[in-house]
Amino acid sequence: MTRETGAGGDAGDGRAVETTLRVRYSETDQMGIVYHAHYLVWFEIGRTEWCRAAGLPYADMERAGLFIPVTRVEGTFRRSSSYDDPIAILTRMEELS
Fold first, then answer.
1. How many CA atoms lie within 13 A of 4 on its CB side?
2. Which of 1, 35, 38, 60 counts the most CB atoms within 10 A of its CB?
3. Catalytic residue status for 13
């Protein structure tokens, strides 16, 4: 599920887009904890949904010859996630350069 947070405008005005999912079994390791590489997949889900909410579906941008490559990724792990945990992905554009 995806929803925009904040009031008025569209996702391009700095508001966050929230996408929710549940941790799938295949995303966990032998200890039942989410394997760290899956967070990057979730970041991409957030980016795709942010673009869609801003009225710019990523597939449409690519067809028009516009690509937005990821050049840097940073994350802080605050606590682990386990199988079937609900996950909220909050995505916001802070800067356009």
1. 17
2. 38
3. no
Cα angle vertex 55, ends 51, 61, to 5°?
60
Distance CA 93, CA 15 (A): 8
Q: Which of 29, 60, 84, 85 is catalytic?
A: 29
Kindly report, residue by residue over 12-26, the tens digit of the pLDDT: 567 899 999 999 999
Please choose, from the candidates 50, 48, 41, 45, the residue with its C-alpha nearest in 3D space to the C-alpha of residue 92.
Answer: 50
Which residue in 67, 77, 73, 88 sits closest to 17, CA to CA?
88
- By the 8 A CB rule, do 10 and 55 touch? yes
What is the value of pTM for the model shown? 0.81
